Amino acid sequence: MAKEVIYLDYASASPMDPQVLAAMQPYFADTFYNPSAPYLAAKAVKADIEKARETVAHWFGARPSNIVFTSGGTEANNLAIVGIAGKHRGAHIISTAIEHESILKPLAYLKQLGWKYTLVAPKPDGIVDPTAIAKAITHRTVLVSVMYANNEIGTVQPLKEITAAVAAVRKQRQKTGNLLPLYVHTDACQAAAYLDLHVARLGVDLMTINGGKIYGPKQSGVLYINSHVDIGPVIFGGGQERGLRSGTENVGGIIGLATALDLVQNRRQAERTRLTELQDIFIKELADKLPVATINGSLHRRLPNNLHITIPGTDNERLLFALDSAGIQCAAGSACSASKEEASHVLRALGMNDYEARASLRFSMGRGTTEKDIRYTASTLAKIVA
Ligand SMILES: Cc1ncc(COP(=O)(O)O)c(C=O)c1O
To answer: Would you say the CB of residue 188 lies under 6 angstroms from ligand 1?
Structure first.
């Protein structure tokens, strides 16, 4: 049997909910059919996909036809950025300096092909100022993409204020006769288990979520696209998903994602309360046992499951190894930046130097996390650092 571990890396991957696994299972063997096939059994699978689409649409407050299933958060983000850019040649896109690589890399790629983009820096507390976003809008801006919650430092952006600021500029711009659309996209991958996903309340035109962070399957995702958005595909082929994402549907993944979303959104308030209490205990324990540690990112606008700290003078590679040996699994940043040579671009955007960034750790809690785990983690970390 595997040794007992304390898993504090839920922002990187969450274990699949048994109910999700059970809901997915039939589609791999018993009802394996291609949903586009003409016989009744295949049509039933197609109907199950449509039911899953309705479930996702319900939580987004959207129409089912606005839901596009993808292979994950990365693909949904690429589709939002590249799909809109493809329909608006040479236009300008705004995003932030703390986005996931699946936003930043497509932007860098588009730049090579002639598009322009601006990355707005957050304030030192990791919050993006809505006024700074509005100020960055030019007469050529077609898209603003701001993540809902950050995957490293857990900060939650004032999305409603940002979309309101963009709407005000959009209105002004229209008055000048400029008919270029101005859309807002949000990457809600880290937010989906804890925050309101109602697209009209948030004021967004496009939104990404993925299954792997909400106790659903990896390689499953959604891009919500409002009907008025002028967007093209990035994957071409047989025309599935309204032609925006060709390829035989990952039926198990789609069913799993919808089931997982339903479960996390139904439990959202209770889990938020529970994790906020654990977060408070974690903060108090660290203040008591390891007072040199500082917390990164706003404490007020923050996911309930995230604690990101810097312990000056330490090296996170060494700390991660020592924590792992003590049975505690956590991360240095996002899963993809943890093993890279460069320091995290998110921490650099907060104004940290490389040494401070490399002295930082991310703890992300989840369903299995208990108060005992948190107290043990804080005291173990204090002993390792001492
Ligand atoms: C904020 C954010 N966006 C996008 C992604 C990428 O999602 P996926 O791994 O499903 O492609 C992740 C996951 O690492 C994430 O945390």
So the answer is: no
Positions marked active-site: 336
237 Ramachandran zone, left/alpha/beta (phi>0; psi -120 to 50): left
Among candidate residues 104, 80, 73, 89, the one with its CA nearest the CA of residue 257: 73
Tell me the average pLDDT of the chain.
96
Alpha helices in the chain (DSSP H): 18-24, 40-60, 73-87, 101-112, 130-136, 159-175, 199-202, 251-266, 268-289, 316-325, 345-349, 354-357, 371-385
Identify whether the C-beta of residue 200 lies closer than 8 Å to the C-beta of residue 226: no
Residue to mutate, 210, 214, 223, ligand 1, most ligand atoms under 8 Å from C-beta: 210
Buried b (16+ CB within 10 A) or exposed e, 220-240: bbbbbbbeebebebbbeeeeb
Provide the pLDDT for residue 4: 84
For residue 219, which atom of ligand 1 is closest to its CA? 10
Round the CA-based radius of gyration of the chain to a whole number and report it: 21
Mean pLDDT on 187-203: 98
Which residue is listed with tokens 């809600």?
188
Confidence class for position 94, pLDDT limits 50, 70, 90: very high
Cβ of residue 252 lying under 6 Å from some atom of ligand 1: no
How close is the Cα of 219 to the center of ligand 1, in Å? 10
Task: State the Cα–Cα distance between residues 216 and 263, nearest whole angstrom.
Answer: 10
CB count, 10 Å around CB of 30? 9
Question: Is the pLDDT assigned to residue 334 strictly greater than 60?
Answer: no
CA–centroid distance, 2 to ligand 1, in Å, is 27
Q: How far apart are CA 141 and CA 175, in angstroms?
A: 16
Tell me the Ramachandran region of residue 331: left when phi exceeds 0, alpha when psi lies from -120 to 50, beta otherwise: beta
Query: Helix 251-266 vs helix 268-289: angle between axes, to the nearest 10 degrees?
Result: 70
